[in-house]
């Protein structure tokens, strides 16, 4: 399978629950299946944005945590998950965005 040398995935576990043992096992399986696709020695990178990732300490894995007080983009506040205001003009109000 052909893949780009840089693959960025936002919220790979978004549809997986957080409380059940089966949820945790499925989440681990997601990452287990992604890791073989990437070889740092060949210049390949996989970047995932995941609120619940408990990675780190593994070979070729770097974990960057952004607490709510910090921002990935200087000058743009980190609003957290689901804290953006809803549009008042919308007839069908939905959450405008959710940070990964």
What does it look like?
The structure is a single chain. Helices cover 14% and strands 10% of the residues. The protein has 100 residues and is mostly loops. The chain has a domain at 8-49. A two-stranded parallel ribbon has the order 1-2. Strand 1 (6-10), helix 1 (21-34) and strand 2 (45-49) form a beta-alpha-beta unit. The longest helix has 14 residues, at 21-34. The radius of gyration is 16 Å and the shape is globular. The chain starts with 5 loop residues before the first strand and ends in a 51-residue tail after the last strand.
β-sheet strand percentage: 5-15%
What structural class is derived from the secondary structure elements?
little secondary structure
Side by side, the strands of the main sheet go: 1-2
Report the helical percentage.
10-25%
* H/E element sequence: EHE
Shape: globular
Q: Figure out the total of helices.
A: 1
Q: Taking all residues together, what is the mean pLDDT?
A: 71
- Count the strands? 2
Distance between the termini: 27 Å
Radius of gyration: 16 Å
Q: Sheet bearing the most strands, described? A: 2 strands, parallel
Low-confidence stretches: 89-100
Topology overview:
Blueprint: E1 6-10, H1 21-34, E2 45-49
Parallel strand pairs: 1-2
Condensed summary:
14% of the residues lie in helices and 10% in strands. With 100 residues, the chain is mostly loops.
Descriptive keywords:
single chain, two-stranded parallel ribbon, 100 residues, little secondary structure, disordered C terminus
């Amino acid at each position: 399978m052909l893949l780009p040398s840089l693959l960025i995935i936002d919220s790979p576990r978004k549809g997986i629950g957080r409380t059940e043992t089966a949820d945790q096992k499925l989440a681990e399986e997601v990452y287990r299946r992604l890791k073989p696709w990437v070889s740092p020695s060949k210049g390949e990178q996989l970047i995932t944005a995941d609120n619940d990732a408990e990675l780190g300490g593994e070979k070729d894995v770097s974990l960057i945590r952004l607490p709510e007080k910090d921002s990935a983009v200087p000058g743009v506040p980190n609003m957290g998950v689901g804290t953006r205001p809803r549009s008042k003009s919308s007839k069908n109000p939905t959450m405008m965005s959710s940070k990964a």
